[in-house]
Amino acid sequence: MIKLAALVPLFPLIGFLINGFFGKKISKGLSGTIASLAVLASFIVSLLIFFELEASSQKENIVSIFSWINSGSLHIPFEFLIDPLSSWFLLIITGIGFLIHVYSTGYMHDDEGFSRFFTYLNLFVFFMLLLVLGNNYLITFVGWEGVGLCSYLLIGFWYKNTAYNNAAKKAFVMNRIGDLGFLLGIILIFVNFGSITYTEIFDKAGTIGTGTVTAIALLLFVGAMGKSAQLPLYTWLPDAMAGPTPVSALIHAATMVTAGIFMVARSNVFYSISEVASHTVAIVGVVTALFAATIGLFQNDIKKILAYSTVSQLGLMFLGLGVEAYSSAVFHVTTHAFFKALLFLGAGSVIHAMGGEQDIRKMGGLRGKIRITFITMLIGTIAISGIPPFSGFFSKDEILAHTYEHSKTLWFLGMVASMLTAFYMFRLLFLTFYGKFRGTHEQEHHLHESPSSMTIPLVVLAVLSVAGGLLGLPEFWGMNNWMHHHLEPVIARANFSLLSHDTEWMLMGLAVAAAAAVIYFTYLVYMKNHVLPATKEEELKPWQRLIYNKYFVDEIYDALIRKPLDFLSMAFHKFFDLQLIDGIVNGVGNSVKSIGSVVRLAQTGNIGFYVVSMTIGVVLILLFTFLIK
Fold first, then answer.
1. The pairing of beta strand 74-82 with beta strand 61-71
2. pTM summary value
3. Residue 26 C-beta-side C-alpha neighbours within 13 Å
4. Ranges in the chain, pLDDT < 70
5. Which long-range contacts (CB under 8 A, 24 or more apart) does 70-78 make?
């Protein structure tokens, strides 16, 4: 099946074309079925590829599709790289993507843009598959730009809403900033290696200067910062909640935001050589994790809370990459895909039951009305909070253990971010599902569980959120850490923990105790003392207002970047455009017009005048000729 790897992205592309050309002519049910089956077919092929790769001793397989670019010394074939990293991401993208497609058939059933939605969704999956399959940076970059385009289309899916369009434009523009860094990194790679093919350049990475490697790694990381929403290029991701909830789940769990993690993991050779680049990744990651976690404390939009949670979790993944725990970061990508897709789809089920309401201050007491949604979201909340034996505990603990080896300060900051995660997630759970209902009578009357097309994916993801930790059980529990061994052929350096078993147990005990203490504190605040979030911003304390307003980062960007650029644009428009350019063009036109208005006076219609004028002209010409001789 490895030789048929092209089928994996081909199926979603076919689904995109069918729905794109014929979506309006076929029924909604058929449109959703075609899109879902296309991703299911990709998942089946990906599964067969994965098992074939596992059974084979050849862990690096090149699948050539066609000769793509040949110009001078530039030769870029269109080919796919099938190795443990790409095969694993294929399973994540297609597996989670299929569940989200199935969920969407119920969630988007009444939307007038149903077929258009699935057209975009299939295209999104296609480009993400292209991104992880490419055997060179250019194919990866094509997929990279493609998911950026699809995110723009899906975030602004309800394009009649101006605010949603603005959110889509914000995501598109901010990602272009990061993409410029990525593109410059690719150019620098070609200049130094004469190639951008992974299998050719990674073996030669040690032959160039460390400074050059650092520059390459940092430029690539700028691209990852944009795509995976790290400081300072993170503000687009919370605004991306403007799109339909299944889009949020796909972006946050299986596609776009994981692209940066994949790219850094794929380029791990560069980061292993450059300590400066690795430390930069780790510092940016942990600061982002802590920063976003604090913002999540006072948010009241159920999707915005989960959005800042994603930014924070991505920060922890980059922390893992920065301390060279590459396989641990990929492990956390996997478990995060399970519980974050579950939480977003669960939030969508809550919103569906509430008739579109997203404010948790207007919810409460929903556990008896939407039982399946409550139980599955409870599982997802426990998993993301790092409570054993749920999946999030194992992947997060691995990252923190490796961080402890490198820096106690970074480990402490990572621990604090994890504790804050437990607080705002259980805050969301308690305020949404416990206590008395705080919405309107009409909303309470509307409450009902979602259809099976939405609840079945929730149940499947809940099972994965519980059992996903088995992929990375610590070796001292008597089992091999499968994830590390699976990715070992791709990772530049083995990253097994060198900590003693006693230290490992101590760190795990601290993590669990801290999470349990935070959960109990959250219970006391929101369950026992029945504290409710402030209904008005004026009721908040100054420091709470600062966090509630997300540290005014958007306002700062607006004041320091947008407004000065708008001022310069207006100044250039008034001076260069209207005064200089238009002045020159209009001046030439007016001059010609003025000359013409004078010259036309010579057109009297008198033949005698014309003869005299011609005679004078001939005399002047002869006189001029005589003088120049």
1. antiparallel
2. 0.91
3. 17
4. 472-480, 492-498, 629
5. 73/194, 74/190, 75/195, 76/136, 76/138, 76/196, 76/197, 77/135, 77/136, 77/197, 78/139
